[in-house]
Amino acid sequence: MRQGDVLAVFTLGLLLGGTLTGAGIWLLSGLTAPLPPAARTAGLLALAAVGVLRELGLVRVPLPQNARQIPPEVLARRARRGALRFGFELGTGLRTYVSATAPYVLALGLLLAGPGLVATLLAGAAFGLGRALSAGLALASRDPARAARVAARLPWIRNAAALTALAVLPLS
């Protein structure tokens, strides 16, 4: 099986997993709807501030992680099914450690803001697509130095995108 085919199935899994997580966040956001808009706005601002401080290394906030690994035979036995499963689990954000603060801030911000089903699903899918970006760049770039330069910029791009999304979230 070609690497491009595996990457496509993996990306599909990431998108499905991210979208499912977005749906879960949207469902749970109904629990925050009774809070007054001022309280939700204050929560968003506080959350974003803690996220920025953590990224700058000024505060230590442990992030959740799931240290389980996907067994190698999952990918070795059936490449397409394994890539889809692995991508789905990574796309949910619940399978492995996500070292960046921005995805957690965005998820909690969506929970507080409750921007609507479509916006929340799109944010979840964008998370999955963002995870696929690093795999796609690794496959597309045969030059290790170039790949390293791009990878060094990814955290800045990811954080800027998440903070921008938070900044434009309308409170319902």
Describe the structure.
There is one protein chain. This protein has 172 residues and is an all-alpha fold. The protein has one domain. It has helices at 3-29, 37-55, 72-77, 79-91, 102-113, 117-140, 144-168. Helix 1 (3-29) runs antiparallel to helix 6 and helix 5 (102-113) packs parallel to helix 7 (144-168). The termini are far apart.
Key words describing this protein structure:
mainly alpha, about 170 residues, about 0% strand, transmembrane
β-strand amount: under 5%
List low-confidence stretches: none
Instruction: Please give the count of helices.
Output: 7
Order of helices and strands: HHHHHHH
- What is the residue-averaged pLDDT? 83
Largest sheet: none
Query: Structural class of the helix and strand makeup?
Result: mainly alpha
Short summary:
This protein is mainly alpha-helical and 172 residues long. 73% of the residues lie in helices and 0% in strands. The protein is globular.
How would you summarize the topology of this molecule?
Elements: H1 3-29, H2 37-55, H3 72-77, H4 79-91, H5 102-113, H6 117-140, H7 144-168
